[in-house]
Amino acid sequence: MKLEYWGYLLEINEWKNERKWSGDNDEDDDQKPMENVQQPSVIPKRGDLKGPIDETTIAIAFPLKGITENSTSTFPTQPIFAYLPLRSCGFRFILQADFEIPASRQDLRRDNLWNEWLKSKMPQLMYLAYQQFKQLPELIADLNLMNEHYAQPTAIQAIKFFLKFLPASYEIDPYFQLFVNRSFELLAGVVELPVINMRLNGDKEIIWVPPSQCVIAKDQFTRSMITENLLLTHRNSYYLHDEVVNECNEKLLVALGCRILNIADILQLIESSYRFVDQEYPKNEATIKQGENR
């Protein structure tokens, strides 16, 4: 199984920043005291912390097998790594970091300041992974030019493959819940998803927009009543591409910012469309007489 692997370099000196624990820097959430973690009275020296090192690397890896397949099946969970596998925490990708671990190597040390700091930096890995998946079709195309013969994914296949790896809260070890929440908050502001856009000539095209402009609608009757133009005119939104809707976890799409049309939304859109027609073509005696004369 081939893995695509990305790493993020961390400066040890940042962990030693005393303002991180004093709470002086209120503008940066990463510098606030962490909840439920005992704050040290003395910041350890670098040598007391992890030996004579200045930096450490956290990394994330994804299996790429099946990226061109259309499937709703889920991927198997992967273990957390501290250079060697530890245990599964529910993730379907691999997380690697220089975690503090007990002698049994069966788990991470909980309530450990070093591990908490590493964990607080991991949402950046999800952002990095998303950026790499966006570029993956071009990267694989370049490799194929060198006769590597990899399956060539489309942009939609690459992004929906990435979305399938996003962790659901109920699947994950509670220790990593904050990592999951912050990852979704970060991705919601940067991810772009494929939608259907209607051109002026009536042709449809695929464009990429933020999740906040994406609407999930599996019911074809609803989509026939609420057309793409109506949705764009009154909600500045688009229907999410069918491949993403049919293959990705709906709850995770909503967590990213996508919306599902409910009955109230549909009625409001229909009312807005009638109000728009009335404004464009007001009913008065003049227009009625013109119609009668015709």
Overall pLDDT metric? 79
Unreliable residue runs: 18-48
Radius of gyration of CA atoms, rounded to a whole number: 25 Å
Task: Give the strand content.
Answer: 15-25%
Indicate the structural class: alpha/beta
Give the CA-based shape.
elongated
Please report the number of helical segments. Answer: 13
Largest sheet: 5 strands, mixed
- The H-and-E topology, N to C, reads as EHHHEEEEHHHHEEEHHEHHEHH
List keywords for this structure.
10 strands; 17% strand; alpha/beta; five-stranded mixed β-sheet; 2 domains; 294 residues
Describe this structure in words.
The protein is of the alpha/beta class and 294 residues long. It folds into 2 domains: 3-188, no CATH class; 195-280, no CATH class. The chain is built from 13 helices and 10 strands. The strands form 2 sheets. The chain has a 5-stranded mixed sheet with strand order 1-2-5-3-4. It has a 5-stranded mixed sheet with strand order 7-6-9-8-10. The radius of gyration is 25 Å and the shape is elongated. The model is unreliable at 18-48 (pLDDT under 50).
